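FAQ: What does the model actually see?

It sees only this:
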Amino acid sequence: MTRPLRSLGFLTIGLFDRDDPRAGHEATLEIIAHAESLGFDSAWLRDRHLQYGISSPVAVLAAVSQRTSRIRLGTAVIPLGFENPFRLAEDLATVDVLSGGRLEPGFSVGPPRRYDEIAAALYPDSVAQERFGYERLERLRAFLAGERVSEFSGREGIEEYSERIEPHAAGLADRLWYGAASPASTLWAAEHGFHLLTSSVIESTGSTDFDLEQ
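And it is asked to produce this:
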């Protein structure tokens, strides 16, 4: 049965030149703004560390949010092995507020790529303690949902403190996507209420296909 297309989006890596990174980032901003003018419904940014592509999609989307008004802004995906969930929650919530609730963040879990080569730079004091499983993503979602992170809230001198991550972006915790690469991770995403991102439903990591009835 033929069904009408409900929405149309696109994905970009945001390539840039090593000696002139601003030009490539500016081109990405212009592409997304132009896509909105053409009627695209969403724009998604890849995340590339130690490469010549966007390493900070949240920062880029903050800039995009000020050049657009309608198009939805996604990440596909942010690998959480590089991130502190507490700080990332603050950044994501800030961009969602700036964009008027248009953020669609996608994530993956697992050790960072080429971890053995960068571990000392990324986690110099906690390499042995770091865990890169689903718990990292569930912790991020809890922060975005407004769960308590501090036992103290209220005034101390001239400073006002909150018990939760601020700013709070209402509804953002319900717009999180998971980048699945196997039938097992697809099932986990569904069972835990995440939207699904996948680049292929024909082949997957460690399996021949996504036939969940096998």
